Amino acid sequence: MDKIFLNEFEKLYDIVQRNIDKCPWVKSINLNIMINEASSEITEIEEALNKNDINNIEEEIGDLIYDALLILKIAERDYNISSHKAIKRVVSKISNRKPWLFWNKNISYEEASKIWHERKKAEKKSGENID
């Protein structure tokens, strides 16, 4: 993995944690407010895409990543969810549904779609709580 990316991601995570600990606005908001903030960022990404404004797309995606991390930390604060478990669950889910990511061969879109849907259906049938 790109060390520069990971370094910047760690800085962002630190900023998010400092917001949780020190920012009066963040202390006063709830998950619903942050979900609305994230939704607004998605709209801004769509607008930047429509304008083909690459610089703004990059900026707005960064804002969305920040909001997603803040949502995670607010959920941890307000609902006692585990950030570790949330990340572990998505890693497990995607790894299970997209096993070809770890294969030494390429597959077609149709094969990928079939595997994804079969795996998701099997999860639901077995009662796995991956979603």
Give the topology.
Layout: H1 3-22, H2 24-28, H3 31-50, H4 54-79, H5 83-97, H6 109-126
Task: Describe the structure in your own words.
This is Nucleotide pyrophosphohydrolase. The two termini are 26 Å apart. The protein is globular. It has 2 domains: 3-81, Orthogonal Bundle (Helix Hairpins), CATH 1.10.287; 88-126, no CATH class. Helices cover 79% and strands 0% of the residues. The chain has 131 residues and is mainly alpha-helical. The longest helix has 26 residues, at 54-79. It has helices at residues 3-22, 24-28, 31-50, 54-79, 83-97, 109-126.
Compact overview of the structure:
The protein is mostly helical and 131 residues long.
Largest sheet: none
Describe the global form. globular
**SS class:** mainly alpha
CATH topology description of the largest domain: Helix Hairpins
Strand content bin: under 5%
Percent in helix: over 70%
What attributes characterize this protein structure?
131 residues; mainly alpha; Helix Hairpins; MazG-like_dom
